[in-house]
Automatic annotation (TrEMBL):
Species: Parnassius apollo (Apollo butterfly)
Annotated protein name in UniProt: Golgi apparatus membrane protein TVP23 homolog
Superkingdom of source: Eukaryota
Keywords: Membrane, Transmembrane, Transmembrane helix
InterPro entries referenced in this protein's UniProt entry, alphabetically: TVP23-like
Location within or outside the cell: Membrane
Length: 211
C-alpha cells in the first residue's frame, strides 16, 4: 500500500531504481540481507561509541565533532535510502513540483518482510534516538553547550528517520496524536457506558433457621 500526505499528488517511483521497491526476495532465512542489517546498525552505533570515548583519545573537539557528524550522515543516508526499503519495505522521500513546492511522500509495501530483520531495524531506529536524548539531558545539566550542539544534530538526523518510518508504518494520512487521542476517548466512553448501563447483581440472601 502506497500512501502520501494529504493534498500531495501521487507520483510514480523513480525510473532508475535498480531493485523493485518491496519486491526483494525474503526467503525463510534468519537474515535475508545480513550486510544491510550490519550497515543499518554500525554507523549509528559507531557514532555513539565515538561520542562517548572521544575525550579519552583526543583533546580536539573539532576532530571529534567532524567524525561523529560524518558517521551520523552516513547512517542517515543508509537508513533512509537502503535499509528501510530492503529490511521493512518502507520508504519516505521528498520531491519538488513544477511550482517549486516541496512534497513529502511516505510509502509502505510490507508483503515480504523478514521478522528478524524487522526487529533489528526498529530496535536500532528507536533505541539510538533514546540514547541521544539521554546525552542531551546530561549536556543540559552539565552545561556542556558545545557538545549539546552535536547532540541536537544527532537527534535531528536520527529523529527524522524515526518520524519518517513511523509515518510510513502507521499511515501518512493519519495523524498519530489524534489517533492516540481517539483511542483513549473510545476506551473512556466504553468504560463509562459499561458502568452506567450494567445492572448490579442482586444481593444474595441466605435463610437461617433456629434448630
Amino acid at each position: 500500500m502506497n500512501s502520501a500526505t494529504p493534498g500531495v499528488p501521487q507520483v510514480p517511483l523513480l525510473d532508475d531504481d535498480t531493485i523493485a521497491f518491496g519486491e526483494e526476495d525474503n526467503a525463510n532465512k534468519q537474515f535475508v540481507h545480513p550486510y544491510i542489517v550490519f550497515f543499518h546498525l554500525i554507523f549509528r552505533s559507531a557514532a555513539i561509541v565515538v561520542y562517548i570515548l572521544c575525550g579519552w583519545f583526543s583533546d580536539s573537539f573539532i576532530a571529534s565533532f567532524v567524525l561523529v557528524i560524518l558517521l551520523l550522515s552516513a547512517d542517515f543516508w543508509t537508513v533512509k535510502n537502503i535499509s528501510g526499503r530492503l529490511l521493512v519495505g518502507l520508504r519516505w522521500w521528498n520531491y519538488v513540483d513544477d511550482e517549486g513546492k516541496s512534497h513529502w511522500v511516505f510509502e509502505s509495501k510490507q508483503n515480504r518482510v523478514n521478522r528478524n530483520e524487522s526487529r533489528m531495524f526498529w530496535l536500532g531506529l528507536i533505541l539510538c534516538p533514546m540514547i541521544w536524548s539521554g546525552f542531551f539531558i546530561i549536556c543540559l545539566f552539565g552545561l556542556k553547550f558545545k557538545w549539546m550542539l552535536l547532540v541536537l544534530i544527532a537527534l535531528t538526523l536520527t529523529g527524522a528517520n524515526l518520524y519518517g518510518y513511523v509515518k510510513c508504518k502507521f499511515g501518512a494520512k493519519e495523524n498519530l496524536q489524534s489517533a492516540t487521542t481517539d483511542f483513549v476517548k473510545k476506551q473512556i466512553l466504553q468504560n463509562a457506558t459499561s458502568f452506567m448501563f450494567t445492572q448490579p447483581a442482586p444481593p444474595t440472601t441466605s435463610n437461617t433457621g433456629i434448630v
